Amino acid sequence: MNKFGRIFSISIFGESHGELIGVTIDGCPSGISINEQDFEHDLNRRKPAMNGSTPRKEDDLPEIVSGIYKGFSTGAPITILFRNKNISSLDYEEIAQKPRPGHADFVGYKKFEGFNDPRGGGHFSGRMTLALVAAGVVAKKIISPIEISSALMEAGGKKNIVKAIEEAVSNGDSIGGIVECSAKDVPIGLGEPFFDSFESVLSHLVFSIPAIKGIEFGSGFEAAKMKGAEHNDVFMDNSGKTLTNHSGGINGGITNGNDIVFRVVVKPTSSISKTQQTINLTNGELTQLAVQGRHDTCIALRIPVVLEASLAIVLADFKLMSY
Amino acid sequence: MNKFGRIFSISIFGESHGELIGVTIDGCPSGISINEQDFEHDLNRRKPAMNGSTPRKEDDLPEIVSGIYKGFSTGAPITILFRNKNISSLDYEEIAQKPRPGHADFVGYKKFEGFNDPRGGGHFSGRMTLALVAAGVVAKKIISPIEISSALMEAGGKKNIVKAIEEAVSNGDSIGGIVECSAKDVPIGLGEPFFDSFESVLSHLVFSIPAIKGIEFGSGFEAAKMKGAEHNDVFMDNSGKTLTNHSGGINGGITNGNDIVFRVVVKPTSSISKTQQTINLTNGELTQLAVQGRHDTCIALRIPVVLEASLAIVLADFKLMSY
Amino acid sequence: MNKFGRIFSISIFGESHGELIGVTIDGCPSGISINEQDFEHDLNRRKPAMNGSTPRKEDDLPEIVSGIYKGFSTGAPITILFRNKNISSLDYEEIAQKPRPGHADFVGYKKFEGFNDPRGGGHFSGRMTLALVAAGVVAKKIISPIEISSALMEAGGKKNIVKAIEEAVSNGDSIGGIVECSAKDVPIGLGEPFFDSFESVLSHLVFSIPAIKGIEFGSGFEAAKMKGAEHNDVFMDNSGKTLTNHSGGINGGITNGNDIVFRVVVKPTSSISKTQQTINLTNGELTQLAVQGRHDTCIALRIPVVLEASLAIVLADFKLMSY
Amino acid sequence: MNKFGRIFSISIFGESHGELIGVTIDGCPSGISINEQDFEHDLNRRKPAMNGSTPRKEDDLPEIVSGIYKGFSTGAPITILFRNKNISSLDYEEIAQKPRPGHADFVGYKKFEGFNDPRGGGHFSGRMTLALVAAGVVAKKIISPIEISSALMEAGGKKNIVKAIEEAVSNGDSIGGIVECSAKDVPIGLGEPFFDSFESVLSHLVFSIPAIKGIEFGSGFEAAKMKGAEHNDVFMDNSGKTLTNHSGGINGGITNGNDIVFRVVVKPTSSISKTQQTINLTNGELTQLAVQGRHDTCIALRIPVVLEASLAIVLADFKLMSY
What we know:
Four copies of one chain form a homotetramer.
Chain A: E1 3-4, E2 9-14, E3 20-26, H1 40-46, E4 63-66, E5 68-69, E6 72-73, E7 78-83, H2 92-97, H3 105-111, H4 129-143, E8 147-155, H5 161-170, E9 177-184, H6 198-206, E10 212-217, H7 228-231, E11 250-251, E12 254-255, E13 260-266, E14 275-279, E15 286-290, H8 304-321
Antiparallel strand pairs in A: 1-2, 2-3, 3-7, 4-7, 5-6, 8-9, 9-13, 10-13, 11-12, 14-15
Helix pairs in contact in A: 4-8, 6-8
């Protein structure tokens, strides 16, 4: 279902090489100042910025076509469109027959019985995260003064991210990475015991971002090696602030007033220049594939602002529900 | 919201030390043979079985009170109740004032303004997973012939699980663990690109299980260190079967026909016998706490069957939606 | 889907002649005083009270089995059970083969492929409204000080309801009726333009009550004959109060501060003593049927309190969403 | 919530005098032939066609901007846009201060605290039904061979519709009407006992259409005057076909294989040329209003195709769920 959220909810549409990408934001309270310049900062952070990102260049100028009147949200659904301009003229007929290993090409073909739009991944494309980032800009206004930040912690298993990417580019290969995201000044009490724990709802949204294969909160997978006496965060006072934050700001599925902290793993981009074996979907024979065109060497580079948007969207929904 | 699922959906109710725990399963097709004996095997697997599990003993006999007629599902909601019998007589008044570090006591008190049921964690208790396991038994019938299995891979950071637990018991402490779960013979095409990727929906359910702080699919966090050429799974033939399974059976949020494989981290139980510092919620002063009563040293021991149930529930829902 | 509501949501389960009828109320705020006596008044109003109602006698004592602790709602789901005691010992095997004309027997058999519980209509029974009334009692506490009332306006096309029923009883027949329901002191602004207009959400719930075949708001079907100048309600002042109330308290799907007023038509009970023609589902032959057992001559008599409950549930959900 | 439907679901956005009106259709199966010409017939039926309809003229050409590739649905969300071209240049500042009696102006202003778009009713406008009709065109393809039809039965209380409208136009007034809609060749078994009866879900959608104040199925409000022996539809054979169709094709909330038949009442348009009393929202004083600009004398004229769309959307959703 292309909809997410209970009160503050978003739905997205569009394809990578179709006419546009769009997002409809429903449940935004009226009276929030929103204009097209507000989106510039976060949309720029999502753009390919350095070696290692796709050379596809798009303006990504948001067109707000509903829900805003005289610069303020009206309470009606806000729809934002992004025209696709720099559309590749590759021969997608051939590509459609040779699914890229590790990509959604094969499952898209099978699930939609060959009717999926194969151009640039169609609706499965990482370009859809443009819609998430736009919705995140609106969500950040709603959750103020909560502050969200995110950063790429390592790429290709190394802290020296620039070097790891250069190496991968020179090999025609790609690398994965780990991105951390956190929120400060979160109120106590967001989330539900069953089934809408804060982790449940956030991971639901985060796993719709292409290439993410794992998520952990607070001490995360390290917790498997810890003792309870070590892992339990000690309360400092009645406010719920704790000395450590192994919980990642969440107990029993509910925010505890400490910083929300989570990390995701981003797999290496599946589209690589190196020649790979694949199958021909029409005749079933094994064949070779070297992905032409533009792709990111390290898609993890562009994930931080998408994670921030995801966290903001979830916080906005829980905040509006908590009154 | 205490409901999960779109077609095959479940809602749970009850408290650890209340009268009962229950689950209502909606959307189960008619004509499925279901009787109370069917639940015995999985419910027994969830029971505390060895040193390291809580000494609370419950029969956990399911009472099917609706939705079954003459041994078959009728198409109406199936409700299953489990009476709580072995209810502790501890003085919960005192406990309610001293939140256990790392537990939901504090957030439960704050979110529900002191009206939460503090006895044994109330609705936040791990005992609620009884309801998930029961729903999983029904789900497993629906998804046949898909086969699901799960196992505890390590505890306290060690493969020698028995030893790690003995050590923790002797220290009055607790330990975490890592549990893996997988499914064989999964059809291609379950899941949606946005926002209901298979990982999204499964992680949503999994993170409602108390004590789980991370989830990873396929190669998971290891993918951060891999190259694309290495991580991309090579197709063997037209069926979509791949030589490796770094994807964990899912590409672009959709099952690809290979085994679904995921792992979760279970944090060490927060309730420990060791004395810990906490706060008094009434007067705000720091105080000491040594958790009395019954608790699991390694709650991860009891998680495998709960993960199986979660996976079965998600598969059942996607299967019923995919027609 | 056996669930209704977005924040204050209810799910129901059980069958007319099964073990019990139950309702789970999710999203009830914590701290609301609720005890079993609170239900007595409305449950009694739903009971068969006079000639024309079924002679089936049930205590209908609510058992609150979750979500209440020390007399107050905890914020966790509230489940209330009603045991079925006065279960008829009729031979339902035969009845299951001969669908009652006008009843759900035929569609239940077809939809659930013969696995439906045919005893007393199973999950289709009017007895399920017991669950609605119980949820309505909780909802009424949440929406205070809004006041709801409801009454049977006519039966069998006549204002002299007692006489109309007596006549029908003597003929072994049944009659329909019209029930009006209204709410006073409703705040302005409940409801959404698309698709959750107040009328949309309320009619959704109301049409799940068995036997209801129409609903109208304010001037309702009379509006077809009116002119705009006549139908438009004139504002008296800035508060939005109007001289007339043809709108039924709702404009553009949103409450306008005037009384909510709606009416429903209740069809004559389909179960009648008179001999009717039906079919044998097994062999397809035409056959005769005279419904044995207990049934209401005028089920509309018992609908007012069910409508009140429906309106209260919808108001509670919108109120909790509107903050 | 601007979303309707469980599997086949739609969300709408836009304002009467904003840039555009749009609809996103989610859950449409892949492989359905859809092109812009397909919409022409139904969109034309919705246009103002005769005396009595608004003189606002719009091309209403659909732009399909996502979800279609090479003329077939891809399985991804289908978004269709309609540019607003003939936008009035009236001074809406003044109008925003004087709510039209019987219109959503007042509640829109209050609910959204003055931030609503007041131009032509904004998101409350009847123009939003353009989106419903477009979604209906897609739905009709999915439900084939079910056939849907609809007609205006009476206007201003008269069967001579043309004359009734002429009279109202000459008086600067407006009139209401009654519209009937039906479907043939409906399969048995669509709908759910609780809470998603066929009537529930259909009325939910129908009441989001502006100006509708009542709905009735089959014999509808006439049933209040009938006896059970009269109202019960007699089965003709094992197929479930009945001699009469008082049920309107639905028993117990589930389609029974007979024609679905329902009627709605459309109130007289609230915007009329006649001078009316209203209030000034800024200073609270009583004032006069004569609605300028374009409006329909009998909006009921344009409702039949909107009802058809609504019924098709609901049938499509139930059909896709029923597999």
